[in-house]
Design goal:
Layout lengths: L2 E10 L2 E6 L7 E5 L12 E5 L2 E4 L2
Antiparallel strand pairs: 1-2, 1-4, 2-3, 4-5
Length: 57
């Protein structure tokens, strides 16, 4: 299974815009906040693997 790294670019209500940081890309991915850790805010770095997001420290 693939793993990806993201940064939270913005939070809009129940959704967050994520940008990949492990590859060069300007695309944003819209993700429901219910799928993300509770402690996210703009600038939070996330790791996605095995259908789960976790905060990178």
């Amino acid at each position: 299974m693939n793993a990806f790294d993201y940064v939270v670019v913005s939070i809009e209500g129940d959704y967050a815009n994520l940008k990949r940081t492990d590859v060069e890309s300007d695309e944003l991915k819209l993700v429901a906040r219910a799928l993300l850790p509770d402690a996210i805010r703009e600038g939070t770095r996330l790791h996605y693997q095995w259908m789960e997001y976790s905060i990178l420290e």
